[in-house]
Amino acid sequence: MSTLPAMPQHVGFLPSITSQTSNPSPAQQQLPNSRSWIHKKDKDIGPSHGLGEKPKQPELSKLEIAVYKNSHKHNICVNMLREGYHKSFSELFALIQKWNTSREAAGPGSAIWQEEPLEKQPDKLDQLQHFLTRAEAAQRAGRYEEMYTNQLSLANYFNNSDDKWLSHHFFESCLHTSKLVKDGGQKEAEAHSNMGKVYMEQGQLEKAAEHYEVFHHLTLGLAWKDKAGRTHNSWGCESLWRIYTLLADKMLENKKHEQAIKTLIKAFEMAKEVGDKKIEGEAAYCVGLAYHRCGDPETATTYLNMFMEISTALGDSNGLGKAFEAMAKALESQGKITESVKYLEKFIQVAKSSDQSRSLQDACMCLGVIYNNRGQYDKGCKYFEMASTIAMNLGDLQLLEKAQVYIGIGKAHQMTTFSSHIEATGHVNMERVLAWKNSRNDMFNDPSAVCSKLYPSS
Amino acid sequence: MDWVGIHEQICQLLLPVRTPLPFKSLCKEREHQQAQLLQRQKHLIELTQAAARKKLCEGRHEEAVPAAMQCLRYSIEVHGLSTLPLILPYLLLAEASIGTGHLLQAEEYLSQAQWTVLKRSECSRSILHKLHRNLGLLYTAKGEFDNALQHLGNDIYYASEEFGTDSIVTSGGYFHMANVFFQQSKMDVADSLYTKVTDIWSTRLSRLVQSPSQSPSLPSASSASPDEALDEAQEAEAAQMLNAIFDIREQAQKQDPAALASASCALAMLCYLRKDLDRAQELGRKALSASQWGADPGFTESIVRFLQRIRAGENLPVPQRAPGSPREPQRAPESQGQLLSAESRQGPEQHNQGYSRAKIHN
């Protein structure tokens, strides 16, 4: 071995591997992950030397050297492996790789390119290490509930820090673990509910619906309660109602009327199960509207009646107003104009009392149009004028202009007598027309305004 | 030893390298001479490295030493001291020394390698992981488990960065780490790691078993590509690890049928690939009976299919070279396969004595 060079003696960087290193048991209890730990140790050693002495080199163990030399990610990975948590290591590694791959795929200039990489965010890495290792220890010991709790903590942590993809990943892990927990399915139900929430946030309504359906199925008839004291079942029903309504909206936009109605009816059933009358009423209203849109006003009126009853019972004037308006429209399409008018007038009363200007304006316009169509132009004009005043108060130019146009139309229609006089072209008629032009009073029906010379009408 | 070790192969090649070169007057001729010499030396380096690696994989540590020494000598001549290409010969020597029990020498070689690595910042992760693995093995042999775990952790980290967390290269690191935990009597951690190693090898081996070259008539759903086939060193490493795990599972106080089933199945697949059909069948049957206690009917089914394949493989016509045994070796690799499988049967005794001997896949 003469060719081997002499081992350098003075290097403080490369510790001797033949000497026994100091027992790193304090390090094992609190593994130094950060360089600040080393600096703190440095300061602890401190300036305890006299003036002529060189400061003592801080005695660093191999572990401390590694902490100083390597990146935080490296140190965390090696610490996890040293303690035997290889699954946590694999998971952390995979998450970092996933982030890097998606960044590469997005390319420069995308939003993710500007973000700090996961491997360079020490707080998140520390959180991941803490909870993943505890979850793995629990898994090895068969304590699946503890494993579930740790994974849930991670999911909530990342939810709060807006790393949605990470929280999604951990909610999924919670779901897998929850199936192993033997508590009658409560954790599994919770996990499904969380997954449903995640998918709703992402806008994937069908998947969210699937998860909430399982949640509903699992919680049927059971009295599990969440932190706020509300039963899981009721929360499940409400979430399902919400999702079905959203899904139905989409279907209506795509003109899939039958599917939409089926979904809305499911939503209504769910709403009834919730036990909250307000939600039930809203659901009935949606169904009624959908039926009306699809051209089935009779069924629409049934549901709208239900909604009306509920709103009256709850004293909800907003709801009541909406109900009256919808009923009126439905009745109108059925041809039952008188009833429709009745409802519209009720609507106007409610709207006036609850100060809903827009709906009031809407109602006035509707009524005006109906009266116009029936030939009752004076009533029609009265309502149009009401509508235009409200529009002025609201400051909405479009509505105001529309109202004014309708007033004009109404007034024009009112002048039928005028037109009949023009058509007649007799002297009396001309006199009458001239008189009106001079004074702009409605004198056509007033026989005393006729001029002294009576001409036989032709 | 030297002759068997390496000189048998390189004696002829040493002649032109060792003899002093005749003087050439023209500069061009001298340059040509130098270039030829360099080429011969490089060839020698490769040859000796391959020979040393092969011997280490086969467990013949003493025979590997001369080969590794020659490799080192010529690497120093070609590349100089303290250069990156020297690290591999140092690692080979260290491994051989650990295998023969000369721990101090191994330490010297490893510290030399480590010094070279520290001086050069551009060391590849592949070399770093091998260095840390060897350091881990050294400390395991010395009984310094904390240091061993630190180095094996680094080994797995670098191997994962280079090859992925589920590659067969990384599985070596997991295996050695499991051995350390086993010696520290932390059985749950060791179990978990052994399971991981078994899983990694099962995935790879089942892909190879299903590949078109093995069974052309069967459809291959997720078969391996041709470059995924194992080389000799990898096969030897797999044999060592899977045999050890199988023994541990069989001799465990608290029998875990699922673990025993997967270990037997993996080992059976390896034997099948090495054409040791008898042993493959025996292990397959063991796996089947163990798996029936487990809760995975899909796994039982796949073992049944595998056993059928082995029986189908046995029925293939074999050219009769010699009377007597029905399963004569067809070609050289098979005989080597049988030889290796015989050696791997000796493996359990070796492993029961201690886990300091290790074969590193280079």
UniProtKB/TrEMBL annotation, chain A:
- List localization entries: Cytoplasm
Q: Which UniProt keywords apply?
A: Cytoplasm, Repeat, TPR repeat
Biased region (Polar residues) positions are 16-36
Region entry Disordered: which residue ranges? 1-58
| InterPro entries in the cross-refs | Bac_ResReg_Asp_Phosphatase (IPR051476), TPR-like_helical_dom_sf (IPR011990), TPR_2 (IPR013105), TPR_rpt (IPR019734)
Stretches of Basic and acidic residues bias are at 39-58
Q: Which Gene3D superfamilies match?
A: Tetratricopeptide repeat domain
Q: Does the keyword Cell membrane apply?
A: no
Under SUPFAM superfamilies, the record lists:
TPR-like
Pfam families of this UniProt entry?
Answer: TPR_2
Q: What does this protein do?
A: Axonemal protein which is implicated in axonemal and/or peri-axonemal structure assembly and regulates flagellum assembly and beating and therefore sperm motility.
Q: Which PANTHER family match?
A: TETRATRICOPEPTIDE REPEAT PROTEIN 29
Question: Under what name is this protein listed?
Answer: Tetratricopeptide repeat protein 29
Automatic annotation (TrEMBL), chain B:
- Lineage, uppermost ranks: Eukaryota, Metazoa, Chordata, Craniata, Vertebrata
In which residue ranges is the amino acid composition biased (Polar residues)?
333-355
- Stretches of Low complexity bias are at 210-227
List the protein's name: Zinc finger MYND domain-containing protein 12-like
Query: Which segments carry the region annotation Disordered?
Result: 210-234, 315-362
Q: Which domain of life is it from?
A: Eukaryota
